[in-house]
Structures are given as structure tokens and as C-alpha cells.
Automatic annotation (TrEMBL):
It comes from the Bacteria. This is UDP-N-acetylmuramoylalanine--D-glutamate ligase. It is an enzyme of class 6 (ligase). The keyword Cell division applies. PANTHER family: UDP-N-ACETYLMURAMOYLALANINE--D-GLUTAMATE LIGASE (PTHR43692:SF1). Residues 117-306 form the Mur ligase central domain. It catalyses: UDP-N-acetyl-alpha-D-muramoyl-L-alanine + D-glutamate + ATP = UDP-N-acetyl-alpha-D-muramoyl-L-alanyl-D-glutamate + ADP + phosphate + H(+). The lineage of its organism: Bacteria, Bacillati, Bacillota, Bacilli, Bacillales. Cell wall formation. Catalyzes the addition of glutamate to the nucleotide precursor UDP-N-acetylmuramoyl-L-alanine (UMA). Pathway: Cell wall biogenesis; peptidoglycan biosynthesis. It comes from Paenibacillus gyeongsangnamensis. Its main location: cytoplasm. GO terms for molecular function: UDP-N-acetylmuramoylalanine-D-glutamate ligase activity. The keyword Membrane does not apply. It is found in: Cytoplasm. The gene is murD.
Length: 472
């Protein structure tokens, strides 16, 4: 696409009235474009429509009219979650009209250097951690994107001395053309979102677009332990900084194992080895403010980005120790009768749930299930066998997950009838899990599935879980 200022008196169609769609619509309207915003939801479900129409922006709700996209349209900006097979997007492709996401638009107007963070798991934690490190170092971060504020809105406020720290999904990245972050980070790649992407090749290619336009002076932060990340690293033009929880690196951020002579064989340390060879200690793994091997990985990635952006290692270490996690990601809710309750609603795929289960040493009563994307959930079997003593399954995948639990040898497997409304079903699940838990156990909501079969978002699912726990 061109700079938004070049669309004066040209027609721009915005698909989706969510937070990002509203921000983009206002931006193009102020730039003098002729803007039409479309959302297939009924008008009563589009409270933003009145505000946009008051500005003189045309809003069409309730359907995707055939006349919406035509040869006179110069650009289509779509909500990332809208699939590419919907009629207006396909029509744009047939007419040769460019289709982008908000990330592409924001890139053209953002004065600040962008730090873009993506991956199948760990994005929100790593993005938040990176922002806190830069804030502690006085580097004026603005955290936005798939977390918090719309990127376009935040970019309008950014100045050259800010750092825009952006969580990015594969959906957002797939719709970019020129986007090039100063620092890009790919945390990991697991099989997920195939209902949207169709194939793993398309999913990986969408993630790789984070690095496609970077230059030699930019930085690509990649996970040396992940095969897809290693393959992508071979093709990027930017300077590559690696992180690893498994290997000593010639340079980069990694976990240094204890010396053979050490009395504490479990003690491990996060370190940075610079390109000249010296190793700089950062923090002991046991000192991290949030538990779990996956959070060691997230800590290394955040450290790599913050250090590259200019944060000193001692500041990074302080934040690593003090950070206590983000809402809905391994979030402690309460303890009741010796049982601890944790909200991990953001675990929307099996790999995330496995990593969360592995974060605990206690026995777990698990609440899981949600949107059915076609997985058989057999990836959960080893973790179920090792550590999960009972399960409550709900959502579209409840029977699939219950089947895996029974294959794991669990005798206490409950399913919740989701014909009830979401709040009632989740309250019942919490009550069932609490009844099966004993003092010393963990009751864990870690669904391994997206929320959209029953809930509007993983955030709402997590909030309902916490409410149900507090009402026990």
C-alpha cells in the first residue's frame, strides 16, 4: 500500500468494526479518503457505528453487500480475524485491489522504531516483559497491537524517541506487504490456526513475513531450539540474535547449566554471550518472577530484544525477577482449603497447555476444552499420564479431550453439558473440579482450545473462571 496521505479522495473499504477497524477508519477519513466500514454483525451489535457516522464515515452492517468492493476501490483493510475466503476479500483479489491488515497501515505512520513479537505461544507474556524492561531503562515503550491498544491509534502518538512494542498474530502478519520492524522476534512455531491458514506452510510463511523486509541494520531474534525458526534464520537479511534453553550458543542468550562441581545440580543461569566471546550473567532461572520452562524461553527472548534496544543487563535482571505475569496466563486466582486455582485461559492450543502442566510439580485437576479446530488432542496424552489426576471437559471438544484423559488412565473424567449458557457451564466445571481436588492440588483452567464456541474471547472465559472460583 501507499502512505495513508496518498488516499485523499480515493475509496477505502474497512472490513470489521473492532477496535483496530475503528482506528483505521478514522485515520483514513482524516487523511481525506472516502471511507466505508463494513461489518456483518447486525447494527445493534455495532456500537461503534454511531461514532463513525457522526464523523461522516459510511457504515454498512448486517451483511457483506455485493456492491461493497468494486473497481473504484483503491484499498481494502480487513480485520485480521476475517478469513480470506469471504466474498469481499475474494472480490478484491479478483479486481487486483490490495488487501492489508492494520499492521501495514500503522507501519507507514509510526515514527518510533517497532519491536514486533510473534509466535504460537508466549507472545503476550514476552511482549509485556519486553515493555517493562524498556520502561525500567527509560526507553519510553508503547505496548500495542494484539495486546492492549490498537496499533494505528498508538502509532499516531508515537515519537522518534519511543519504542513501539507490538504483539503480532499470524493473522495480522499475513496481511502485510512493506512492514519491517527494527527488531523482530519469532518465539516458536507449533501447529495451530490451521482452520484459518489451511496449511502449516501458509502459517509459517505468515510468521516469516515479520522478517521479510528487514534490512542489514535491523535485528531478527529467533529461537535456536525451534526447527522452523532455524530455517527462517538462514534466509533473513537482518542481524540474527539467537536464544536457547537447550544449547550453549557461540553468541546470544541461553541457559548455562551448572558446573559439574556445583553442589546444586538443578541450578541454572540465564546468560548473554556477546560476539567477542565473554559470557555475561543475567539471572538465575529460579529467580524468575513466573514459573515454567516456557517462561525461561520467554525471558531469554525478552532479554534479547530489550538489550538490543538499549536496556542494560542489570535492569533486565531486575524486571525478570519482579514480573509476576499477565492476566489469563498462568495467573494465580486464590487458594481454598489447601487447593490453589490458576487461570490459564490464554492457553488456546495443546502445546500451551502441555507447557503449563509441566510448570507445576503438584497433582492437577484440569478444566479444558473449547472450539473444535480438528485436532485429536493426543499431544496432551503424556502430560495427562504424568501429572493430571482428574479432568473436567467442556465446549465442542469435550468428548475428544475426555477420550484422551481415559486413554491416559484417568478414572475421574467429567464432561459439562454446554447446552447451558457459558457462565453456567463454566461455573459447573469449577464446582466439579473443586470437588475432585484435595489439599495440595492445583485446579487449572488451561483449555488447549480457542474460546469462540462458548465465549467471545479468552479474556472473557478467564474472567468468568475467576468469578466462579471466587464464588465457591
Amino acid at each position: 500500500m501507499e502512505h495513508p496521505s496518498n488516499y485523499r479522495d480515493r475509496q477505502v473499504v474497512i472490513l470489521g468494526l473492532a477496535r483496530s477497524g475503528v482506528a483505521v477508519a478514522k485515520l483514513f477519513h482524516e487523511a481525506g479518503a472516502i471511507v466505508t466500514v463494513n461489518d456483518k454483525k447486525e447494527r445493534s451489535l455495532c456500537p461503534e457505528a454511531d461514532e463513525l457516522e457522526a464523523l461522516g464515515i459510511s457504515v454498512v452492517c448486517g451483511s457483506h453487500p455485493a456492491s461493497l468492493v468494486h473497481s473504484g476501490v483503491a484499498l481494502v483493510v480487513k480485520n485480521p480475524g476475517i478469513p480470506y475466503h469471504v466474498e469481499p476479500v475474494e472480490r478484491a483479489g479478483q479486481l487486483g485491489i490490495e488487501v492489508v491488515t492494520e499492521v501495514e497501515v500503522a507501519y507507514f505512520i509510526c515514527k518510533a522504531p517497532i519491536i514486533g513479537i510473534t509466535g504460537s505461544n508466549g507472545k503476550t507474556t514476552t511482549t509485556t516483559w519486553t515493555g517493562l524492561m524498556l520502561e525500567a531503562a527509560g526507553l519510553k515503550p508503547i505496548v500495542a497491537g494484539n495486546i492492549g491498544r490498537a496499533l494505528t491509534e498508538a502509532s499516531l502518538e508515537a515519537e522518534a524517541d519511543n519504542h513501539m512494542v507490538v504483539e503480532l498474530s499470524s493473522f495480522q502478519l499475513k496481511g502485510t506487504r512493506e512492514f519491517a520492524p527494527r527488531i523482530g522476534c519469532l518465539l516458536n512455531v507449533y501447529e495451530t490456526h490451521l482452520d484459518y491458514h489451511g496449511t502449516m506452510n501458509d502459517y509459517v510463511a505468515s510468521k516469516a513475513k515479520l522478517f521479510a523486509n528487514q534490512r542489514e541494520e535491523d535485528t531478527a531474534v529467533l529461537n535456536a531450539d525451534d526447527p522452523a525458526c532455524r530455517q527462517i534464520a538462514e534466509g533473513v537479511r537482518a542481524r540474527v540474535v539467537l536464544f536457547s534453553t537447550r544449547s550453549k550458543l557461540q553468541s546470544g542468550f541461553y541457559v548455562e547449566p551448572p558446573l559439574a562441581s556445583s553442589p546444586d545440580k538443578e541450578k541454572r543461569r540465564l546468560v548473554f554471550r556477546d560476539e567477542q566471546g565473554p559470557v555475561h550473567p543475567i539471572v538465575e532461572a529460579s529467580e524468575l518472577g513466573i514459573p515454567g520452562s516456557h517462561n525461561i524461553e520467554n525471558a531469554l527472548a525478552a532479554s534479547a530484544m530489550a538489550y538490543t534496544a538499549g536496556a542494560p543487563l542489570h535492569v533486565i535482571a531486575k524486571v525478570l525477577k519482579e514480573f509476576r505475569g499477565v492476566e489469563h496466563r498462568l495467573e494465580f486466582v486464590r487458594e481454598r482449603d489447601g487447593v490453589q486455582f490458576y487461570n490459564d485461559s490464554k492457553a488456546t492450543n495443546p502445546t500451551a497447555t502441555v507447557k503449563t502442566i509441566e510448570s507445576f510439580k503438584q497433582d492437577i485437576v484440569l478444566i479444558a476444552g473449547g472450539l473444535d479446530r480438528g485436532s485429536d488432542y493426543m499431544e496432551l496424552l503424556p502430560a495427562f499420564q504424568r501429572q493430571v489426576k482428574a479432568i473436567v471437559a467442556l465446549g465442542e471438544t469435550r468428548e475428544k479431550i475426555a477420550r484422551v484423559a481415559k486413554l491416559a488412565g484417568m478414572s475421574r473424567v467429567k464432561t459439562v453439558d454446554t447446552a447451558n449458557n457459558a457462565q453456567v457451564a463454566l461455573t459447573e466445571a469449577v464446582q466439579e473440579a473443586s470437588a475432585m481436588a484435595e489439599a495440595g492440588d492445583i485446579v487449572l483452567l488451561s483449555p488447549a482450545c480457542a474460546s469462540w464456541d462458548m465465549f467471545p474471547s479468552y479474556e472473557e472465559r478467564g474472567r468468568m473462571f475467576k468469578e466462579s472460583v471466587h464464588n465457591l
